[in-house]
Amino acid sequence: MSAALPPFPKPQETTGPPELLQLGTGIEKDEPCLRADAARNRARLLEAAARLIAEHGAAGVTMEAVAAAASVGKGTVFRRFGDRTGLLMALLDHSEKKFQAALLGGPPPLGPGAPPVERLRAFGCAMLRRCVEELDLQLAAEPSAERRYTAAPRRFLRGHVALLLRQAVPDADSELLSHTLLAYLDAALIHHLTEQCGVSPARLEAGWLDLVARVTRTRPPA
Amino acid sequence: MSAALPPFPKPQETTGPPELLQLGTGIEKDEPCLRADAARNRARLLEAAARLIAEHGAAGVTMEAVAAAASVGKGTVFRRFGDRTGLLMALLDHSEKKFQAALLGGPPPLGPGAPPVERLRAFGCAMLRRCVEELDLQLAAEPSAERRYTAAPRRFLRGHVALLLRQAVPDADSELLSHTLLAYLDAALIHHLTEQCGVSPARLEAGWLDLVARVTRTRPPA
DNA sequence: ATCCCAAACGGACCGCGGTCCAGTTTTCTT
DNA sequence: AAGAAAACTGGACCGCGGTCCGTTTGGGAT
C-alpha cells in the first residue's frame, strides 16, 4: 500500500550513499552523478537545514521552511531526500561516516586490533558520547517504527556489533544479542535517562561496561 | 513550547486510569466520574475504533473516521483521548490491565511465588506472546520518541522488571538493566525480526531465556 | 420545577508532511 | 549546432493530526 509506486521517478537513495561500507568491502557507490543544478540545490538545502536547526532547534525544521531558506521549491526537497527523516539523516551522514571509518580502520580499541570484548566496550562508550553530542538531531531523525531497524546506519552498527559478538561469544545467538546491546545505546533511551531521570553519563558508561561483561560472561574491567 | 497550555481544559488522563496499579498499592483511580453523555461517547468511540481497525487495519484509523463512525465531533475524540496514540493505547488498555493483574496477583511463575529469575523468564515469554497477538495495534500505538519511556504501561513493566532484577542480581544497576531487558521485548523489534527477518517465535523465546541467563549470570534452564 | 455553570460538544480552522504534474533546464546524440 | 530524451523544478494540491471557540447539555443546588 505505502510502497506501491515510488512517488517520484526514484525514491532516491535517501541520504547519499545508502549501502555504503558493506562490512569490509570498501565499495562506495559515491554520488550517482547528480546533475549540476541538482547537486547545487542539494548542498544549499543541507546548509539551510543546518542553519535552521542551529537557530530554531530540530523541531523548527519544516520542509517548507528549509525549501524557502534554500530558495528552492518544496517538491525539490522531497525529491532529493525522500522525506523529513531522510533530510535529517543526511545531516547526520558526515559524522556517521567518520564513525564507521573509525570502526573499520581506526586505531584500537575502537578499530581492529584489540580483542573483541574490548572493542565492544569502546564501541559503546564512543556511541554514548556521539549520541549525547547530537542528541536532538538524532532524536528528530528517528524513523517510524516500521523502518527503524532497516535504516542503513542502524544496519551497519548492528552488523558490527554482531561481528564482535560472534568473536567474543561464539555460542550465542549474536544476531538477537546485537539488537539488545544496540538498544542500550538508543538515542531516545539516552535522552530519557539523561534528561528526564537525571542519570549521569558516567553511570551510563558504567552500565554499558557491566552489560557487556554480563552478556559476554566476562569479568568487568578494573 | 509544546507543553505550554493544555489544548483542552484537561489534557485528560489519556487512557482511563493513568497511574493505576502503582506497584502493589491496590489504588485505582477509576473513571473520574465522566458525565453520562461523555461516558456514552467514550464507549462509542472505542467501539468504532475497534471496528475500523478490524476492517481497515490500524493504519486506516483516522481520527476523523473514528469520529464519524461514532457519530461524534472530531473535537470530542481529542478531548477524550488526547491524541491518536492515546486512543490506540486505550484500545490496548483492557489487555494491559489483565496482564498487570497476572503479574501482580496471578499464579506463578508469572505472578509472585516463584524465584525471581524464573519469573523473569516467564515474563518475557508472556510478553512475546502478547506482543505477537496485537502486533499491529501495539506498533501503531507507539508514542513519539520523547514520550515513549514515560507512558504509563511502559513504566509499570519497567518497574516490574527492575523489581525482579533487584532480587535476582542485587549488585547490578537494575534500573538501567531493566531498560535493556525490556528493549528486547519492544514491539517494533519483534515486528522487524519476525516479519522482515523471518525469525521464528521459538528462536525469540530462546533468545530471551539466554539473555536472562547472561544478565543474571545464571545458567540457562534445561 | 427552575436555575446555573462546569463540562462536554462539534465542526471550522491551521500547519505540516507528502504528492503530482506541467513546464524548464541539462546533457547526450548525431 | 540542433534536436530530443532525461532529469530536475516549483508550487498548487491533498489528507490528517491537532486546536479553538461559540453553543449545548447534564445534573447538582435551591
Describe this structure in words.
Chains A, B: InterPro entries: Homeodomain-like_sf (IPR009057), HTH-type_TetR-like_transc_reg (IPR050109), HTH_TetR (IPR001647), Tet_transcr_reg_TetR-rel_C_sf (IPR036271). Chains A, B: Residues 62-81 bind DNA. Chains A, B: Residues 1-23 are annotated as: Disordered. 2 copies of one chain form a homodimer. Chain A is mainly α and 222 residues long. Chain A has 2 domains: 33-82, Homeodomain-like (Arc Repressor Mutant, subunit A, Orthogonal Bundle), CATH 1.10.10; 91-222, Tetracycline Repressor, domain 2, CATH 1.10.357. Chain A is 61% helix and 0% strand. Chain A has helices at 36-56, 63-69, 74-81, 84-105, 116-133, 135-140, 152-168, 174-184, 187-196, 201-216. Chain A is elongated, with a radius of gyration of 19 Å. Chains A and B meet through helix 8, helix 9 and helix 10 of A and helix 8, helix 9 and helix 10 of B. Chain B binds a DNA duplex (30 and 30 nucleotides) through helix 1, helix 2 and helix 3.
Number of helices of chain A: 10
Main beta-sheet strand count, sense and barrel state of chain A: none
The percent range for helix content of chain A is 55-70%
For this structure, the quaternary state is homodimer
Overall residue-averaged pLDDT value of chain A: 88
Strand content of chain A: under 5%
* CATH class group of the largest domain in chain A: Mainly Alpha
The end-to-end span of chain A amounts to 54 Å
Keywords (chains A, B): DNA-binding
Domain HTH tetR-type (chains A, B): 39-99
Organism (chains A, B): Streptomyces lancefieldiae
Region (Disordered) (chains A, B): 1-23
